[in-house]
Structure prediction request, 517 residues.
Amino acid sequence: MSQGSFHYPWFKREDTDAFFALFQNNIANFIVIALAMLGMGFSQEIVFGKVLPGAAVAVMTGNFYYAYMAKRLAVREQRTDVTALSYGISTPVMFVFLFGVLLPAKTITGDADLAWKIAAGACFLSGLIEVIVSFTGRWMQRNLPRAAMLGAVAGVAITFIGGEMLFKTFEMPILGLVVLGIIIVGIIGRVVMPFRLSPTFFAILIGTILAYTLRQSDPQNIQNGLSHLGFYPPLFTTAAFDGMGLLFTSMVGVLTVVLPITLYNAIETMNNVEAMKVLGDEYDVRECQAVDGIGTMLGALFGGLFPTTVYIASASSKWMGAGRGYSIANGVVYILATTCGLIAAMAAIIPVAVVSPILVFVGISMVATAYQANAKRYYPAVAIAMLPYFGNYLMTRFGNKAGEVVEGISSGIIPLGQGAMFTAMMFGAMTVCVIDHNFRRAAVFSFITAFLAFIGLIHAPSLGWNAAPDFSLGYVILGVFFLYFTFVKPTILPAPPALFSLRSDEDPHPQSRPRRD
Prediction:
């Protein structure tokens, strides 16, 4: 087929399901942002007139560009089954910026407008850092084992997305169970819904109708929602530059939050791009990280406060058979919806229990991808990479009271959750190397982890020298233990065949060696 006659569709039926899945992912974050900021004392003018439109500009920019990248890949490979990358606000990063940047700025200054400017400056700086970090993206993708990267993403998926949204699903069991059943039957079971409606749209429609018919939701919510309709156009602002001036003076402490969470964001993008590569669509991770950084900076220039990333929903969109149309539609709908206040209206009208089951599917699809993308012998590495996020979830959700709340369970929960993405990948990488009996490389990863703990990127509340000495020493000793087996040839016991045998279609090459692809 010649490139001249090749046609990659703008929109296809499968894009509808992916659109609603990505839309609900992003709208859930937009709702949390609105409720949290209003609860902190920010005015509706700042929240609905500046922050949400600015975030929508970032989301629109990234979605449009990733649709372009999908078209470019489709033409190059002459394939019509290419799926565009999903793009939006990272949930863990959103919470860090809400409660690690915005709330401290508001508390210290006592001025909501000034706090917004400081957070906008932090957001712009985060985007700039990610653009710089993008130059190392390909190197990291080649040298970090796939099981470690995807296991870390699966940890986010099973806690912040699948797990939390299942909790929300059960808050209204009648609605939640019905909608969850529709999603399972329609998307996982691939059963055609009545009137050939997309499963996600059908689920939202039925769930919302049931909510008000059965009085599970207050009809007053509809009136309250409609009252938010108005005109909130995205407007260029220099607030980010004003805020950066304060960041490097009286609010310099906030920078210790911005740097590690930006590195986390860049790695999250890398991991999700890797997941799409496994599913057949290979994108340039360096370009993606740069796009995320530029989108974040652009959003900050229109009042947005939250860094953006290649979203974890990319894999589920691929599962649904989506193309580029869902990405374009999300970009258009979000800029229109925030401009006319529709996001605020929908947040009030559609119950959370109706949206949540869709996100449960997004979470479980990512966990499934993490296992399906790896040979069976690496399953333990995927599993151990997921675990730090259980600590991170508890720490994030309980906020400043986490230490008091979880102390009775274990004093190790908080340090496990601090810098969870880095810990998860290092745990996964070390396990992969041990499985491959590449103990020298396992030692390297252990020493890297010791350094991360030493400077406070993991297991510590903030950056600093010798921030987590016990953890640093523990990782150094572990590295020396690994090195021992590089000089003394160990006796290797046979692996249990049921767990670690290779199927004929699995990759026989060890992941502990850098990839050349």
Q: What stands out?
A: Residues 454 and 466 are 5 Å apart (CA to CA).
